[in-house]
Fold these 2 entries.
Entry 1:
Amino acid sequence: MAKPFDIRRQTGFNAIAMACFVLLYLPIILLVIYSFNAGRSVAIWEGFSWRWYISAWQNDQVQSATVRSLILATSAAIFSTACAVPAALATTRQGSFKGYTFVFALINQPLMVPEIVTAVALLIVFAAVKVATGYTGFGYLILAHTAFCIPFAYMPIRARLQGMNLNLEQAGADLYGTPWRVFRHVTLPQLWPGILAGAMLAFVTSLDDVVITEFVKSAGQDTLPTYMLGQMRRVVTPEVNAISSALLAISVVMVMAFFFLSKTRK
């Protein structure tokens, strides 16, 4: 009797897997290590120090960019999740309908199109709006990040809806509950883990975004990633490593929370 196929038993599979992990994570580990370097070099270890974390904490530009990034990411997460919830309900509770594939593709368009294309398109549209209205404020960044983050919020919400038991919703409807009351008292309590997971995924995506921000932002609207990009064009110090390590820590915490919320089945 032939043995079942197991990719893990194939010659060289473990070596290739380990090489991939090393190439992916070794640079990140080195970045975190050198963020504690006492000297100014990002490649020569001169002793352990919290110097660059303290420097980044006391840097006015870093502070303003961090606050701006958090406001932008929070706004984008809230608005994109608010758009993703009805979109997920429409594509999971209405059954198949004419144009379903088109609607699904439209919602997920930012995932399928290269980010640079989306950034250029937003730049063209917002440039025309700025000329017509004279407004050059922070709202354009919020709109751009919201549009880009919608599919990231949509995916876990839709997955949660597909995994839910429809019997409870049908029972609520049989008991003469209006669609709103059924949604509020039956669907929403079960959907909360998916909504929170989608919001956190959108938050992390917006917080880390560089390309769209770089194209859409006006003068004086640097976020933390674009500030770091600007610093990389000048003299690079471990302060950039410290900021990157802090962003990495935030991202890891958010992704872990997203994972545990996605596994919730209460």
Entry 2:
Amino acid sequence: MNLERITEKLNILADAAKYDVSCASSGSKRKNENKGLGNASNGICHSYTEDGRCVSLLKILLTNHCIFDCAYCVSRKSNDIKRAAFTVQEVVDLTINFYRRNYIEGLFLSSGIFKDADTTMERLVQVAKKLRTEHKFNGYIHLKSIPGASDELMREAGLYADRLSVNLEMPTEEGLKLLAPDKDRKDMIQPMDFLRNEIIQRAEEKKLFKKAPMFAPAGQSTQVIVGATAIEDDRAILHSANHFYKNFKLKRVYYSGYVPVLADNRLPALNTAVPMVRENRLYQADWLMRFYGFRVNEIVNNDQPHLDLDIDPKLSWALRNMQIFPVDINKADLQVILRVPGIGLLSAQKIVSARKFNRLNWEHIKKLGVAVNRARYFITCNSNAYERRDLTGTRIKQFILAESQSKYLKNKPDQLSLF
């Protein structure tokens, strides 16, 4: 192995992989029962970059060569950058050597598309297969599925990877046609649809046969680019995410603010990066849809197509629906309590359990983990403290912003440049 050349490749292909944010690793349980390497029980270690992005410790591309010319991609074929490619064995050796040095606990592997989708996907599958079968590697493996790859390769990938993900890239078909006219949305949907059906089928087999092989135990996810076009507002992005959650059983949708790295009249100017806070608000809205019972039209609508960057989506919804509040914390249903700003999922469940034994006051609520500085404007309890019911939504917003210590709200920084 030429160490100098491998190091050069690693620098190029690890740097190219930083634009892919969908690297979370929760959901897999792959026990080490054969005296192999690794044990993916609670996911893998993560590293956080300066701009807040969460990345796995070995996150690389197989190659940054690509046959496509997507306007938003730094690896597009017309971009004059240094190119490199790993062999299958080089990726395997790097993973094993880094693992043995305790640098990593898993692998996140993506790739530019060279020659065609099947050829690229076959190489990715070979990496995972070698790690699992030859080296008995039980660590976490996340493979990026290549749009347009055959069902046979997707099926084989699911047998060796913990999670598979197909990047939608643009939230809407219109955006994809504008910035990546060579790509077809159907090529992205087809493998996602196949994986959904295969995951459901394998889960049923697992119920019947204890030793049935695992298939992508951490499920599938996707990533969309935010802010690359003006035609895709937050409403369109969240409607797209909601569609894929409901119809493709995704574990996660990741939102990646577009980082201007290329000059193109179809793209935002080079000095107009998407604010990091916009990504943060989309993740908060996504959380409300998945765990708090909110519908997309309650969060964003025709009159308000963009999320408020000053305050989180739940608080924004509450201020637009003041007629519902205040609610009595000792009587309200769980679903109502979940909609109160400052009360999280676990805190709401604790409230419902605790009030069976005692009427709750503010001290009780604080101990249950409620952010009282927000919740006090929207609830009543077994106490008269904090009761100021003559405030308008605008005044409440002013009070909360004045008290906020959030790093996102204090200075509202732009997303940092990666260069």
